[in-house]
Amino acid sequence: xxxxxxxDGSAVFNIARNLGGSLGTAxxxxxxxxxxxxxxxxxxxxxxxxxxxxxxxxxxxTTVFVNKGYDSVxxxxxxxxxxxxxxxxxxxxxxxxxxxxxxxxxxxxxxxxVWLCHQAKAVPGAVAH
Length: 129
Fold this sequence. Notes:
The protein is mainly α. It contains three helices and no strands.
């Protein structure tokens, strides 16, 4: 790059950096949202009244809420809401794990690409960085 073009090159580099950061953030946000929905559905498929573990947990939570002064219907609703919160929390953890795997894959791919690049030869009169 010629010295007179250094300012323009810096501006283009900054625009590319900002655009890449924005696209990366939007991509990771989309991945987390979609994967949270996926994991929520997958975990939720195992939460039903036909599983003894679930009915035992609902009864235990209902008892806790009844002891806090709720009526039995509200206590049961609160128990199911509590279970749903646990499922959602675990789904978010799994979604963030998936997003971190994408970041790791991107960093590894970038490292391989950098490793494969050849060093440019110096051009007389160019700005050194």
